[in-house]
Amino acid sequence: MTDVDLAHHGDRDTVPGLVDLAVNVRAGGPPAWLGERIAQADVVAYPDQTAALAAVAARHGRPPREVLLTAGAAEAFVLLARALRPRHAVVVHPQFTEPEAALHAAGHRVERLLLAPPFGFDPAAVPADADLVVVGNPTNPTSVLHPAGALRALLRPGRTVVVDEAFADAVPGEPESLAGESHPGLVVVRSLTKTWGIAGLRAGYVLAGHETVDRLRDVQPAWPVSAPALAAAAACSLPAAVVEAEAWAAALGAVRDDLVTRLGAIPDVRVVPAPAASFVLVETPCDDVRTRLLRRGFAVRRGETFPGLGARWVRIAVRDTATSTALADALRAALAEAPA
C-alpha cells in the first residue's frame, strides 16, 4: 500500500526566505561546544567507534554490544528491513514514514494500523500474529507520547517491536522511554539530529539485544558513521550533555504550551492534545491551508503524506514565542481568506 508519498519529508516543504516551521530540527544549529567537538574530529584516519559506543552505552546503562551506531535513524530502519524477515509487519500510523518505506523497498508486505484522533494507542489493536511492529514514541507527526506500559504490552515471543524514539529527548526526564530496558525482541531507535541541531551530520543509534545488533551490523557497510558524527555521538551522551538536553526540553515545553494555546484559540482549528515533542499537529477546516500560510511567509509540513492524515492537517515546529504569535496571527488570517 503506497497511496501516499512515503519519501516526502519536511525538508521538501521548506521555502527559501520563509519562516521554516516544516523541519522539526532544533533551530540555530548545535551549541558552540558541540560544534567544536565535531570540528576537532580526525577526518584523516578511518572512523573508530570505540569511544562513541562506550559513551552511548553508558548513557543508557547498557553494554556496548547492545548498541549499533548508525548514520541517523533513517539508516537504522533500512538495516532492520534488510536484516529481518517478517511474515506480518505492522506499522502504527500516522508516524514517520521511513520505516514503512524501508520495509517496502526490502520486499516486505506491510499492514497499517491507522490511529484515529487524538491518536492514542491500544496494544490490543495490533494483530496477534504480527511478528514485527513499528511505533513512534513520541510519535512524528502527532507529537503524542504513549505510555511505556502500552509498548511493553506488545512484546511477546517471536515478535520484534521497534520503537522510534527520535524525539524522546525532547521530553524532560524521558519518562516513557524504553532505551534503558533490554527485553527479547525490543529494538529502540534513537536520533541525535533533532535536539542537537545536526541533521546534516546524520547521527543515530539502535539499542537492542546483542543478537539483533549483530544481525544489523552484518548488513551494514564498513565505516558507516563518519568521524564527526562519532564525535557528536560521544559528546551528546556525556552526563553534562544529557543535563543540558533536559533543560532545553523543559524550555521547549513552555514555548510549546504557548503555541498550543494560541492555535487552540482560533475557531475551527484543532490541535492534537498534550503534545510532547518539538512540534504540534493541527487540523484546519481547509485543504489548502499550507498554501495560504506560504503566502503569509510561513512554511509548515504538509499532512497528506502521512498515512491516516490529509491535506487539512499540518505539522508545525515549535520555535520561539514571537514566532508562535506571528504564526497564529497568520493562520487566523489564512483561514478567514475566501476560498480560491
UniProtKB/TrEMBL annotation:
GO terms for molecular function: pyridoxal phosphate binding; transaminase activity. Its cofactor is pyridoxal 5'-phosphate. It is an enzyme of class 2 (transferase). Keywords: Aminotransferase, Pyridoxal phosphate, Transferase. Residues 46-331 form the Aminotransferase class I/classII large domain. CDD domains: AAT_like (cd00609). Pfam families: Aminotran_1_2. Its EC number is 2.6.1.-. InterPro entries: Aminotransferase_I/II_large (IPR004839), NHTrfase_class1_PyrdxlP-BS (IPR004838), PyrdxlP-dep_Trfase (IPR015424), PyrdxlP-dep_Trfase_major (IPR015421), PyrdxlP-dep_Trfase_small (IPR015422). It comes from the Bacteria. PROSITE patterns: AA_TRANSFER_CLASS_1 (PS00105). Belongs to the class-I pyridoxal-phosphate-dependent aminotransferase family. This is Aminotransferase. It comes from Jatrophihabitans endophyticus. The lineage of its organism: Bacteria, Bacillati, Actinomycetota, Actinomycetes, Jatrophihabitantales.
